[in-house]
Amino acid sequence: MQRSSIIVLTGVLILALDPTLAFAQDGGGWPTTGVPFTRGAGGYLSTFKILLSWFVFLGWVKTTDWVSQDCFRTKMNYSLWNPLVVFPFLLAFLLSWVIPWYWIAFVLMLMAWIAPLVVYIVQRNASVEEYQKVMTGPHLRHMLSVAGSKVGLNISSSRVLDADKGPPVKLIPKGGADEQADQANLLLARQSPGYLTAKEVIADLLDRRGNAMLLNYSATTVAMKYEIDGIWHDLPHKDRLVGDPLLAVLKRIANKNEAERRKKQEGKFGVEYQGAKYTASIVCQGVESGERALVYLHDKKVRFKTFEGLGMRPKLVEQVKQTLSAPQGLILFSALPAGGLSTLFDVGLRESDRYMRDFAAIEEVSAGENEIENVTVHTYDAAAGETPMTKLPNIIRTYPGVYAIRDPFDAQSLGLLLEQIPDDRVIMTSVRAKEAVESV
Predict the structure, then answer these.
(1) Chain centroid offset of residue 205 CA
(2) Most buried residue, 16, 41, 87, 324, by most Cβ within 10 Å?
(3) Looking at residues 391-415, what average pLDDT do you find?
(4) Residue 109: how many CA atoms within 13 Å on its side-chain side?
(5) pLDDT reported for residue 7
(6) Residue 240, C-beta contacts closer than 8 angstroms, at least 6 positions apart
(7) Is the pTM here over 0.90, yes or no?
(8) Could you give the angle at the alpha carbon of 318 between the alpha carbons of 314 and 321, nearest 5°?
């Protein structure tokens, strides 16, 4: 809408500003009735007034586009508000070229732009949280601070200071339809009082060498646990006044509905802290006592590339590599819960001959596993009801030499994969268990 509106108006202004394009007759003058008549310098058009109207038009295009997108974010009735902010201004804009008194027409155009916009802002502010409101004192200070920072001015803004306080944790939104949607989610999250709490909790988890956090919501409190070296540790309970904004921020940057407290939701977002990058996966589910949220942090940095780096003895390394080079069979990797199974599986893939055989990995779309060179990843969406079996028939038709499935899956998928082994196929999978016999 922005582009087409600007193109149409630009064509009108070119015709208005260039007298040679406007029905030139008799050598370029206006049509006459026998009385000599020519246009004076400037063609009787005020460049200042045209540019002033043009800037108002651009402002209207920008705010109208914002209203259209904001209606979807705030669940406002877009079928009502879009016409209200579009048509009054368009009518006033057309009338401004007809009304002979420019300043009266200009004021009418301003009112047709600003009045519907103000009414929309008042209505949407009444239906959203305090931190989501726009054109309030804190929001205007925030906008002024951002604009001033671009030209070297240091203007205090409570919103910026609140978001930038605390540990140097950077939360990276993911899951939106596009980058613009992700940035909108981040902006809303930064305006929340739970943003600082989220940074502090994640920094505390990583400082303790933890890789998972569990939040159990009851009627009045939030019970917290950290998983450190495979063991869950209880933390002091938090009040719901602190815990609710915390979870809302985590859901928002994962592009999930923070108001949904019963249905299962899965998503992911990024984290950067002290030079390290992490992929965080979040799973929320309503339970009898309230809601439960589990957050896992996966370190993107490749710390181990070989079995020797994991501490395996040379004799064992030789045996494992010989097994990985087998032409067919089932290879099962196993480790204690939180005992580095993902890392072990990654190393197993890296130590395999991925250049002589085709590798096909099957993963859940939100798993967030590390990418391995020359391993083609096929994903399925469990939230949409998909299973590995949904993708397997098409994958089998590509005749890969090795199938890599990290987590346990249904018996039907496993049976179909086992049928491929006699055709010189290798199945690599993994399971968490306390000992080797249990994994088998």
Answers:
(1) 23
(2) 324
(3) 85
(4) 25
(5) 46
(6) 217, 219, 220, 221, 222
(7) no
(8) 135
